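COURSE: Structural Biology Practicum
ASSIGNMENT: Worksheet 4, Part C
STUDENT ID: 0417
INSTRUCTIONS: Below are two proteins. For each, the amino acid sequence is given first, followed by its structure token string. Answer the questions at the end about the second protein only.

PROTEIN I
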Amino acid sequence: MPTPPRTKVFAKAIATDLRGAAQLATQATLGVARMAEGVHQSVLGTLGARGDISSTQTGSHPQATGLTGWVYSAVRGITTLVGKSADAALRALTPLLESTEAQPPESPQRAAVVAALNGVLGDHLAATGNPLATPMSLRFNGAVLEPDQIPAKNAVNGKLLIVLHGLCMNDLQWEHAAADGTPTSHAAALAQAHGYTPVFVRYNTGLHISVNGAALSEKLGELVDQWPVAVESITVLVHSMGGLVARSACATAEANAAPWRALLKSMVFLGTPHHGAPLERAGNWVDVVLGSTPYSRPLAKLGQLRSAGITDLRYGLVLESDWQGLDRFRRQPDRRTHLPLPGGVDCYTVAATVAKPRSLLAERLVGDGLVPLHSALGRHDDAGRTLHFPKNRQAVVYRLNHMELLSSPVVRELLVNWLA
């Protein structure tokens, strides 16, 4: 049996990944040491042995003194030293590994791992300057659109299709193999049927949705200014969290009177949690439970590894004012400002459910496995919060899960018919 060909990987990319992984490993080791020290001190405290706790605190983290304190201090010191040394060595090595060769197509496997990591820890990666943090970029035919690398006029047209992925995903995951094995996607089908030019967005899904929305609005403004032909219209196709980012971008554009907003004609949402997702709410309950006893309180930090992007999904926060100044790990009611669908735009939504048709209870409770049916359809128990999609611009697809929305032929047919 022949050996499958290996994907070509640049030495520079390997060094960058190693540097990012080393930073995470250092921070993880420090975090585990702090949690262990916290549990240790909680146990001693319940036994009345409080003399071993330092009066100085690092945030809410008590530090031990005496021999115990020396051990924990040594672990922190050595870990920090090793981490900084590794980062400095890899940082110095990276420029030496620059290659003059053309970069090969990115490995889908690496892109998927980095995207998942950004979804879970993306805000932390960005805040610490970790090279694994994904900057927002626009992509055409698999290549990043740079100001000096705009495609030729004969390769594009003025009908832009902006495509956004969801949480822990990337732009490559829109593409799937057709029945005959050839790669296909919803974007490719729309380009073939209606002449759209697809431009994909890749972004750090661990950042606040409003932060990504503001960045997307800026990127779209630059794209319209630099596009080689006059932009006639913009259509947005989104999956999951991407829909919240797109709505946030519209709000930012309206507030700033961005010219690209007037070109927006249509938006299609696939499985977008307009009113949040219950799994994040369950994660918030974990925070509450772990913080309820002195023994488990240090472990509550584990539940707080969730990124800002994930906690925004609790209720579907799309505006900066919805989260600014609030403790995102504290359980609190839904107080977000209602943001209607953008005016003057044809908005469509597709909701999936793993249930069979006419199974009303299962539809409402299960949805597509991640997003409840009513949330994806924009419906809310409070009528004032409902997003009003016209009946002929909403659809429910049965026996389909959240991820299958990206590859379903039924969904693709809906898109082609809606945007005809």
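PROTEIN II
(use this one for the questions)
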Amino acid sequence: MIVEHLSLVDFRNYAHAELALQPGPNVLVGRNGQGKTNLAEAIAYLATLGSHRVSSDAPLVREGKDAAFVRARLAHGQRRVTLELQINKQGSNRARVSGSPVRTSELPRYAQAVLFAPEDLQIVRGDPSQRRRFADQLLIQRTPRMAGVIADYDRTLRQRTALLKSARARGMKGGQLTTLDVWDDKLVALGSELIDARVRLAQDLADPVAQAYAGVAGEDHRPELSWVLSVRGADPEEGEELPAGEGGSTPELFRSALAARRSQELERGLSLVGPHRDDLLLTVRGLPVKGYASHGESWSVALALRLASAGLLRAESQGGDPILILDDVFAELDADRRRRLADVVADFEQVLVTAAVAADVPAPLRANAVRIEAGAVLGPLSDHPLTPEATDG
């Protein structure tokens, strides 16, 4: 899969932008704050329906405007498809595929991209929500219908939690709240599907993560990943990391855990069981990455997760490789990891790299370099060389 052309209107700091991209490596070079990451973000949004930097859409719309527009022409072999997205500051977004209106949730069926950015260190070092978000975005890319499952689960969770808060305020006991059973049924059905999909994802990522880690770090530190599940008695959100050994199907475990936590949920007005409380446990050398891994190991794990994701999508896709985006990554790596990373990504159909300093990017990836400045695409770097003072960060 290749993005041949990207057009933006009122997206982030771009009033208007046109960017032609080539197969193979492409490098966007510019000082920090000029807009190179915004171009990468726009492409990734089409594939993941979200930003890697903000949790809402409003910041994506240029100041003073009501909507932003992203248009990308993609090549799948000999086939061309044009994706158009209207991102509204308020209200629902709108999408078209080759001119025909579609639900925005359909876009990941046509666009696949994997983006790695410095923010991804939070996947391994941040709170459990960061790891859940990583997993769910990859689930949606693998199986787009999971976007609907996740949205329905979140909606059910909000309604159930609102009921618990109301019951708490009125001092109601479990036996008095029969309507909670209806929401329990919906929570179990949707949540079990999401839990099982996440567990399968971790299993499918195991070998690719180990291979990618070794490729980037040059060492085998036995990286592993597994889910710590609230339906098995753990609560990662409360710091309880060790899962209980109870067996049974996911729906059975879910219902049992809800029953065990019913009084606590009513006391606190919170839904304490479900995939919204789970955590993806990442380890190297048999120890949790969070709290034990070195800075270099943490970077290597985060990179390995994204590279393994790209490898998984590549193996399963009928539309070719996903677009691989490396946003301001090479400046954070030592020379050895830069070289290793360049070797790992060299054979992807299209790689998009952003950098403040072109020299930070290994030479094999610098074939197509474009200068970005002040929300404008200036063209090939050779035609617009950066001055020394323009490359200081």
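ANSWER KEY EXCERPT:
Q1: Residues 386-393 have pLDDT under 50 and may be disordered.
Q2: The first helix runs from residue 36 to 48.
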